[in-house]
Amino acid sequence: MSLWEYANPVKFMGLSSRLIPTLSVLTILCLVTGIVWGFFGTPDDYKQGSTVKIIFLHVPSALMAINAWMMMLVASLVWLIRRHHVSALAAKAAAPIGITMTLIALGTGAIWGKPMWGTYWAWDPRLTSFMILFVFYLGYMALWSAIEDSDTAADLTSILCMIGSVFALLSRYAVNFWNQGLHQGASLSLDKEQHVDDTFYYPLLFCIAGFVLLFVLLVLIRTRTEIRLRRAAALAARNV
Amino acid sequence: MPDLGKYADTVILAYIVSFVFLIGLVGLTWLQSRRAKRILATEETRNGK
Amino acid sequence: MLALFLRDLKLAIRTGGGFGLALAFFLIVVMFVPFGVGSDLTLLARIAPGILWIGALLACLLSLDRIFQLDAEDGTLNVLATSPIPLSGVTVAKSMAHWVTTGLPLTIAAIPLGYLLNLPSIAYAWLFVSLFIGTPALSFIGAFGAAITVGIKRGGLLLSLLVLPLYIPTLIFGAVTVIKAVEGSNPMPSLMFLAGLTLLSVVIMPFASALALKANLS
């Protein structure tokens, strides 16, 4: 029994239908715990006041915005190398989630930035990088919807994802080179000295777990949707 | 409701924006999933005949 | 490969599309800037490096879809795919031809256009060098975008959406080089990054383009 068994669409449908209920419960538990604890159970920061509570949405969504792209990259490579259809469809399924996470990260960041930095938007390297990531997601999704033949679409988007990753990374460094930032250091480092205070750290961990679970759950559901649509299209083609 | 002080608007706005996006995403996923199920079901019954 | 390069060059010159249009577009973009921001010479001098780089980049973008489109329509691309030259070699020849007909003229045209924008005199050499080194990257990255969208009808807008984000690092390092020169600080580090970026694009983009072409032809 190897992991690749689940690359078979039928096996995948079976496994995912068994996973989804448990996963949904876990997601809701983590998200509710994290957000309620974060919103009601944490004190104000001495510098940022109550705006520190935005961290519980900002940091997990920013993390997932990047991780979703990483997951798409891995899925794209699996498709290019081993030609598993589920993998290509999972990459397609992840893109809208990634772009939503990018928007949440940008939105919460902008709202937080207004009272803290005095402006909604500044051309800070991290903000700029997220804007760039957003554009990469747009291009990727536009390419998926522009090509009719699904295998060609999977091929081309996978190649784009690969090259896009290289250039997104280059842009990150280019942007750093271009402008020094306003952003604070890592909020999540394992190094105790660096990361945020424990009172914020534990609810934040719940929120991150919740966002990760939500991402996995949504990818599973969306991949199932894609598989169903693919099968329906195949049936329709046979009936004509 | 905790006392959010002078930044109450900011914090609540950030939470509302995030929830709107998240609920929108989940809702969209759910709608698309329902639509796919329906399309597949009609195709399968057509195929069965 | 050389024959293919020369053929593309001849085609571009004979049909007259590449050369003239990109240059005219570049001129018009540069001309529009004073209309948009006012004719204040000190302001123009400050934004000139960025305008020239953005203008050159957009002008380069215009002619990208020609790289593969015509050959795909009349079937030449299918012939090339079965020829002994690997597809990556085809891409290299076509990217080079695109650079000679677009990037190089734009680089030269940027000098007089820089004068129109009151670019400080110390910066001309750096403007020329940065464009000379940077525009090959634009052609090679652009060829990749063209390879991906070759099968899509009316893919021009999509091509821009795919290629422009990939141009970001080139634009940043290119423009920063000229800005540093204007400010009187050392432009070498960003120029080196720009050169590295071009080398990287020249090395990896032909393979990526070949993969994309294969997917489109199958």
Structural summary, described in words:
Chain A has 6 helices and no strands. Chain A has 240 residues and is mainly α. Chain A has one domain (16-239). Chain B has one domain (4-48). Chain C is mainly alpha-helical and 218 residues long. Chain C has 9 helices and no strands. Chain C has helices at residues 2-15, 17-37, 41-62, 66-73, 76-82, 87-116, 124-148, 156-183, 188-217. The mean pLDDT of chain C is 89. Chains in contact: A-B, A-C. At the A-B interface, helix 2, helix 3 and helix 6 of A face helix 1 of B.
* Series of H and E elements of chain B: H
How far apart are the first and last residues' alpha carbons of chain C, in Å? 23 Å
How many domains of chain B? The number is 1
Please count the beta strands of chain B (DSSP E, at least 2 residues each): 0
**How many β-strands of chain C, per DSSP?**
0
Globally, the shape of chain C reads elongated
Q: Which sheet architecture does the biggest sheet of chain C show?
A: none
* Count, helices of chain B: 1
Mean pLDDT of chain C: 89
| Share of residues in helices of chain C | over 70%
* Structural class label of chain C: mainly alpha
State the gist of this model.
Chain A has 240 residues and is mostly helical. Chain A is built from six helices and no strands. Chain A has one domain (16-239).
What are the salient characteristics of this protein?
heterotrimer, A: 240 residues, 6 helices, B: 49 residues, mainly alpha, 1 helix, 0% strand
Furnish the topology, listing elements before pairings:
The complex is a heterotrimer of chains A (240), B (49) and C (218).
Chain A: H1 9-40, H2 55-82, H3 85-117, H4 125-146, H5 150-178, H6 198-239
Helix pairs in contact in A: 1-6, 2-3, 2-5, 2-6, 3-4, 3-5, 3-6, 4-5
Chain B: H1 8-48
Chain C: H1 2-15, H2 17-37, H3 41-62, H4 66-73, H5 76-82, H6 87-116, H7 124-148, H8 156-183, H9 188-217
Helix pairs in contact in C: 1-6, 2-3, 2-6, 3-6, 3-7, 3-8, 6-7, 6-9, 7-8, 7-9, 8-9
